[in-house]
Amino acid sequence: MLRYVGERLLQAMIAIFGVLTIVFIVMHLSGDPTLLLVPQGASAEMIADLRRELGFDRPLWVQYVGYLNDLIHLDFGESVVQRVPAIDIVASRLPYTIQLAAGALTVAIGVGIPAGILMATRRGGWLDRVLTAVVVTGQSVPTFLSAILLIFVFAVTLGWLPASGIGGLSNLVMPSIALGALSMSTFARMTRISVADELSKDYVRAARARGLPMPKIIVRHVLRNASIPVISIAALEIGNLLAGAVIIETVFAWPGIGQLAIQSIQARDFLIVQVIVLLISFVYVITAVLADFIYAIVDPRIRLAR
Amino acid sequence: MHEPIRPLLDVSDLTVDIDGARVVDGVSFTVAPGEVMALVGESGCGKSLTAFAMLGLLPSVARRTEGRILLGDRDLATFSERQLRKARGKDISIIFQEPSASLDPLASVGSQIADAYRIHTGASRADAFEKARQMLVDVGIPDPDRRLDQFPFELSGGMCQRIMIAIALICGPRVLVADEPTTALDVTIQAQILDLMKKLVADHGTSIVLITHDMGVVADIADHVAVMYAGRIAEIAPVQDLFDHPAHPYTALLLASVPRLDVAPKADLATIEGSVPTPQEFGPGCHFASRCPLVTDKCRVEQPPLFAQGYGHRSACWHIDRIAEITGMLP
Ligand SMILES: Nc1ncnc2c1ncn2[C@@H]1O[C@H](COP(=O)(O)OP(=O)(O)O)[C@@H](O)[C@H]1O
Ligand SMILES: [Mg+2]
């Protein structure tokens, strides 16, 4: 078990190092990142000054070492536009994205997993057919389109919910649904496949053979076994939700890091973009590690393996 | 020697359809208390479906269309799912071919044994675990306290089958159906499991319906044997009678393909020329007609009933009087 945890943490560190390196490479792909950072129409003198200030005139490997060194010391640089630490700007926006992601995840898991279970246990029934239709819709309508449709129906036509912006819980409803819909479909599909697969296993028949009622077998045995592939999906989906937030936050004028990313790209404030990219990548890595730990809790074959 | 007047289990006319194909066709047999009835036949002849149908555990594609399953004086065939649930594990139990797959990999062995007891008795957790511990001793598992806390992946196949037997017997059912309980196991472990089953019959008087495709196993443990072919019973007889005087061409060929019953316990039944028809290919007559050396036109069009051949010995063949020809044909 200890070795398992150690291995996962080492893998995570390697992954994070990989992410840092890729971000560095992308930033320098164009040759001179200074050009990415200056406002359009800047004079050659201004560009040269900034280049010197940011150290882009040094050899590439010196820059790379400096970059890693800065990051290790949690120094993410300053916003060239606002002249405050990039990390502070991102941190001020982060709570909104966390709210949104939590809302979306609640929709995705709260609807997706029960729907998947129902579809698997009522296979072929009318409920299965209705839910399948919902799932297929959820996964085939693009996020921005479902966002606009939601706004049109519930804000513009019915006037039940605010069309955009932050405020109360009612502001969170539509963005959460729009952002969570795709994930919800993924959860529903995976849960359905996974539960149906478990239901066909020998141990289910054996449990019936000793007189256990089906609902008990499902709750005690099937769901636990079926959760393993769903946990992997959940880990991936959390990262996907953050990436999807870019569109949703823009559509709903939601002041999270997704909106910040778009604004920073427009303002050519690339150090902020870099922080956001790193942040989302870290979330992917961390949730993957968490998923591995949850496997170990659920599955004795992992927990007890030497 | 003497057949009891009242059988404990009386299966008659059991019929199972899958997609319109009659995969189990009018299977009938009886089992007396404390007796082992073997159901033998090649793979795919309907043994497992017969077993599953008896407990109402058929896969969803399969339907039991006819039949009575009298256990004592109650007909399981008329039971609702709720009634069946109460009977399963308590009055009649079943163990399967793949013992390792029959246990939930994520649940401890002890909890799975204890659950089987609690569901029928409402016993407390502690009592159920104590009972589970006793059962492990009964089925010959050393160090039961440690085993209770283990998970299926930590146990061998033979050990898992002992656990399954413990689960099956914890509520003291009168009948145990064992669907090829040793097929997935090593030869030495097979012998141990069979010995355990013999001991259970001797100690508790449990009746066993033992499904196998191994004539050696039949010779070792069975009192009576029903030979199945392509969904039907070809011949049914007390075991010694069947070995001494096979009255169906299929049985005769089968026995001839097992070199020496007393010393060669492992022989597959698939050594007869030709192949078993699939349920879609079943004709109106005898299903064995396509492979039978004694076949006549009548065999192809008319299904032979089970003719009495002696005490408890019946055979579904139009040409029982010519069986000797088969023995003569053999080298
Ligand atoms: N779940 C199923 N779906 C479709 N056909 C099945 C299923 N189970 C069994 N059958 C068919 O029913 C017949 C009898 O199967 P089975 O009882 O498992 O045979 P046995 O146990 O004697 O090997 C075979 O032809 C098999 O292909
Ligand atoms: Mg079988």
TrEMBL record, chain A:
Gene3D superfamilies: MetI-like. Residues 94-295 form the ABC transmembrane type-1 domain. The chain crosses the membrane at residues 12-30, 98-118, 130-154, 160-182, 230-252, 272-298. It is a multi-pass membrane protein. SUPFAM superfamilies: MetI-like. It is found in: Cell membrane. One of its GO terms (biological process) is transmembrane transport. Keywords: Cell membrane, Membrane, Transmembrane, Transmembrane helix, Transport. Pfam families: BPD_transp_1 (PF00528), BPD_transp_1_N (PF19300). This is Peptide/nickel transport system permease protein. Belongs to the binding-protein-dependent transport system permease family. GO terms for cellular component: plasma membrane. PANTHER family: DIPEPTIDE TRANSPORT SYSTEM PERMEASE PROTEIN DPPB-RELATED.
UniProtKB/TrEMBL annotation, chain B:
InterPro entries: AAA+_ATPase, ABC_Ni/Peptide_Import, ABC_transporter-like_ATP-bd, ABC_transporter-like_CS, Oligopep_ABC_C, P-loop_NTPase. SMART domains: AAA. It is found in: Cell inner membrane. Keywords: ATP-binding, Cell membrane, Membrane, Nucleotide-binding, Transport. CDD domains: ABC_NikE_OppD_transporters. One of its GO terms (cellular component) is plasma membrane. It holds the Pfam family oligo_HPY. PROSITE patterns: ABC_TRANSPORTER_1, ABC_TRANSPORTER_2. Residues 9-255 form the ABC transporter domain. One of its GO terms (biological process) is peptide transport. It comes from the Bacteria. It is a peripheral membrane protein. One of its GO terms (molecular function) is ATP binding. The keyword Transmembrane helix does not apply. Belongs to the ABC transporter superfamily. This is Peptide/nickel transport system ATP-binding protein. It comes from Hoeflea marina.
